[in-house]
Design a protein that fits this description.
234 residues, alpha/beta, Rossmann fold, nine-stranded mixed beta sheet, 38% helix, globular
């Protein structure tokens, strides 16, 4: 069972769309289209009269973008949870099992790690190791909740992740080694996500999706641009 991404071309690339019993993760730099894919998927389900839970931690859910994609009245099918710190994010996840009792067809978290990253940074700066461990445990628990929702309820889950560049030693820099793009909380998210898609900005308004992990498909690429009605393959 799969659901549409909101793009016929991207559905074809994914051989039918997003799988319903796994967590799908998009990661990439700012402006690469992560939130756009989240909103497209949410709109695709909402226009079919199905309910969507959308946890927005970055203020990325755009009403204007929604209006470009579909009639505004579909907003009644999207349960939007806006959170502004990691404590509120934990509270939102505590509510999820109860909310899933409704007729939910998709769960979106955009992004999974921004507030986690800020909270962890504060703990590290204050040298509070126990608090840092508690924050990591909280993130793992949240991903476990999403995993149970997808596997047991057959509800697809889409989350987004941020990136950073790895630190190069002086020797690596002088040898010409290129910095790798790393996922925030990469090991944790890689463990729980069965489909991982990297997004890149490639210039001239074009972007690239790279399938980095999938249960049944090899690594491959999809070059696209964002347009008013979604995305367009280029």
């Amino acid at each position: 069972m799969k659901i549409s991404s909101g793009s016929i071309e991207f559905d074809r690339w994914l051989q039918g769309g997003y799988e319903t019993d796994i967590i799908t993760t998009f990661y990439g730099p700012a402006g690469s289209g992560k939130s756009n894919f989240c909103i497209m998927a949410a709109v695709s389900q909402a226009t079919k009269g199905k309910k969507v839970i959308f946890i927005d931690t970055e203020g990325s859910f755009s009403i204007d973008r929604l209006k470009q994609l579909a009639p505004f009245d579909i907003i009644r099918n999207i349960l939007l949870l806006r959170v502004t710190n990691f404590i509120e994010q934990r509270e939102a996840f505590n509510k999820l099992p109860g909310l899933i009792k409704q007729d939910i067809s998709l769960v979106v978290v955009d992004s999974m790690v921004m507030l986690y990253r800020l909270a962890l940074g504060e703990a590290i700066e204050s040298q509070d190791k126990e608090k840092a461990r508690a924050i990591n445990r909280a993130l793992v628990r949240q991903l476990r909740i999403l995993n149970e929702i997808s596997r047991k309820k057959k509800i697809p889950v889409i989350i987004t992740d941020q990136v950073y560049s790895e630190f190069l030693s002086r020797e690596d820099f002088e040898s010409g080694k290129e910095k790798r793009v790393m996922m925030v909380a990469g090991d944790i998210l890689k463990y729980w996500s069965k489909c991982i898609i990297e997004l890149q900005n490639v210039g001239s308004g074009r972007k690239k999706a790279i399938l980095r992990k999938h249960r049944s498909m090899p690594e491959k690429e999809f070059v696209f641009e964002i347009v008013n009605k979604g995305i367009r393959e280029t």
